[in-house]
Amino acid sequence: MKIGYRRVSSFDQNLDRQDLGPLDKTFEEKLSGATAKDRPELQNMIEFAREGDEVICWSIDRMARDLRDLQTIIQTLLDKNVSITFISENLTFSASSNDPFAKLQLHLMGAFAEFERSIIRKRQAEGIAKAKARGAYKGRKPSIDQDKIIELKQQGMGPTKIATEMGISRVSVYRALKGSQEQQEVSQ
């Protein structure tokens, strides 16, 4: 089975440039690639993949922005005898192949993806610090209505149903509920 994984960093970005060709199943996310554990569709894809399947991803930085995460993801798939192809880098990894050059290339590209993520975060922090100094930084406007999440939870809806109802991820629902609970504990 050919399984696709596509990811962009934010909800307003488009997945169209990541053309993976014909696939049997596709997993897609509009979330930061900072950590693998915070991406439910990545975890679903890893769990879904079976022996003999091929995972296809546009590029290494779409799979992971952290070298350790990248290595863990790939090793997990290889342990399941699932091959992984990165189209942009023209790299394929499988349990049966042991290409040292491909491994080196993977580590270099993964390190560059992690480095790029670090530079982006540094620039962002510098920009925010300058904006705060000018009094212009107010923070990002909330894009999720936490009160609505709490209301739906009080009506007996589960996190998955709330996420579907509101068109957001379950991670966002859990985060909002946790934030609400922490806020209540502080005010008591």
Helix content: 40-55%
Helix and strand succession? Answer: EEHEHHEEHHHH
Rounded to an integer in angstroms, the radius of gyration calculated over CA atoms is 19 Å
CATH class of the largest domain reads Alpha Beta
Distance between the termini: 53 Å
Structural class: alpha/beta
Query: Averaging pLDDT over every residue, what do you get?
Result: 85
Proportion of residues in extended strands: 5-15%
Q: Tally the helices: what do you get?
A: 7
Strand order of the largest sheet: 2-1-3-4-5
What does the secondary structure layout of this molecule look like, with pairings?
Blueprint: E1 2-8, E2 25-30, H1 40-48, E3 54-57, H2 60-63, H3 67-79, E4 83-86, E5 91-93, H4 100-134, H5 146-154, H6 159-166, H7 170-187
Parallel strand pairs: 1-2, 1-3, 3-4
Antiparallel strand pairs: 4-5
